[in-house]
## 1
Amino acid sequence: MNEIISRRLIVINLLESFSRKEMEDFTHFISCPCFNTNQHIVKLLKVLRKSILHKNISNNEIYQKIINLLSDNSGMSQQNELAILRVRVGVLSQLAEQFLTIRSLNNETACRNELLYNELLKRKLFSILSRRINQFRKKTVAKVKDIPYYHRQYETERGILNYYYQSGQWVQQDNLSLLNHQLDAYYLLSKLKLHITALSFMGTSAQKQYDFSDIEALQDILQLPLYRDIPLVKVYQATIDLIKLKNKQAYTKLLDLLDRYRLQLSDSDLNDAYIVGTNFCAHQIKLGSMEYYRLLFDLYQMMDKKELLLEGDFIPIGKLKNIVSITCRVGEFEQATYFIEKYTRFLRKDIRVNVRDFNLGTISFYKKDYQSAADYLYQIDNISLSYDISRRVMLVKSYYEIDAEYKETTVRVFRSMEKFIVEHRQLTSKDKTAYKNFVRILINLYRIRHGVTKMKIERVKEKLEAQRVNSDKQWLLEKAEMLSGEND
């Protein structure tokens, strides 16, 4: 029984990942005699779709339900029913995997061509193979030159070489030079992309370390004109330079290359490069370079115009949050509203309203309409850790601005945020310290502002300046300076 439950969970996980269209196609797939002749499998899928999938049912209940709904009242023993169900569930799982493989194969031209070329060669259908290769070459001339492109070209040239050899034409002609070029371009680009991934991982975790001697050994080859002048090689090299150098010159060079070669780059490669650019701008902002707010906003606008902000058919909630926040920081409130209206529909349905209200609250906050911001933010349910912390930060800032007189209830809200930060296990110790420092300075400023403490503003400013980490030192310094001016 445990083995059946394990198998059943696999097939349910597979089927619950299907879209509505994919499920309809899969239903037709298993009804086709070319793939399945067992009608019991068709019935099993029908039961799963109607009574099991996407329902909150325990493992044992699911198992019993399948048995009850599929039982033919033949008096068969439970042991035999279990054995038959085990086989049928296994077959259905295999069919689901086969269905996904075929769908993927339809989108993977290189793999499909490789299989077809090999079959045509085995059958010595040289004329058909030659026609298919010529057709493929014509179709791919104008396409973008990404890694899959070079993979497809390599598989095509490999098929041609096999064709020359098996048809006896290799004595008069061969394509080894072109085959080598396509293989080298595919390999070099794949290595550069993996190198970018490794550098990105190292940038987010000090524990990540890799041996880059292989990339260093490839530098001479990458400088050969045959490969150096490939647009994607230039873009990957510029991306690597930006990650390593972290300066504006490298950033400008990468953006110039992306603009120059935009028609020869895939959306995926454009998006990956722009993300490196956004990460660089965000890093510079953290270091205090205010000019990068505008540069990052310009980058988001550029990505929006090229339809690169979506990831598939959705937008991550963190990305939308960052876009709206940066757009507000540069005072482009109409554009922030545009981003919310355009991209909220690409969020999960269960969080759309909360994410929309959060981002509308962000606009109100940066417009200094603090009461409206508090009204939006107070009613929001938990979305994610990042959203929840940002919501709490904007709320305490809004209460600081709203209160015309001292309120102990507001201080309790400040303390509540500090308690939330301290007790949250997902936060690093550094982040906890940064947010705790922020809240404690905020409380001191709030009390000084309303004259309920003997602490002097100069002392608070000294403490703030001495802090090595603070989640928003700049904002606190601005408020401290305002209080100093009022005291003067």
Note: Residues 1-8 have pLDDT under 50 and may be disordered.
## 2
Amino acid sequence: MKSASSAGVWNLYTMERVHIMIRTLSLSLLLSATTLFAQYKTQPAGPVPAELAASAAGLLQKDGIKITGPGDKVLCEIWVRTSMPAPVKSAEDSMSMPTIPHGTILAAIRFPEKHADRRGQGVKAGLYTMRFSYYPQNGDHQGAAPQRDFLLLTQAAEDKDGAVNPNFDTLMNMSRKASGTPHPLVFSAWKDEADAKPGFEKQGENDWVLHTKIGDVPVAIILVGKSEG
């Protein structure tokens, strides 16, 4: 049977051990959170890929953006347009960039390994153009995004004319061919806040957003994420 003094020492020892365990756990959680929120970084990607059609490549900035993850593993490389196209009038609503002609190439992107869009749909490794579109107001996309602006991926090898802006149905079919499924490959995009800083940052619970500029227009594109809609 322990004496009162030895019991007191034992209790102090136990409490100290508990405090050490709590501090260790707190530090571990802090480091895990820091690692999570710093897992991606951006750096120059170099020139536009030679595989792009000349009419598409000529629209894009000469130096792209490379996004890397843990171990400097490349997530993707993206090249955005040099400037916005001439504006057009649109009858569409709930758009953050309503004056961009439908089907316009806004960027090209290369995934060195298999990726996924926000629907969890697989994106094969390869080079794609990213053309401007919007989701239809047919009730199937409620909650997909606050705005209807989207970029649809099409296979660069199949997208041979950057000067032509395909209509809605044509672009859907081009992107379905890239996905190999009945649904196109879609990446949410919108006109960004005027004071948004360029970079790649976490937004909300699931999304990582690229903040960049096309000409002097700030644009945001979700490149990693999960849709709840």
Note: Helices lie at 4-37, 54-57, 168-179.
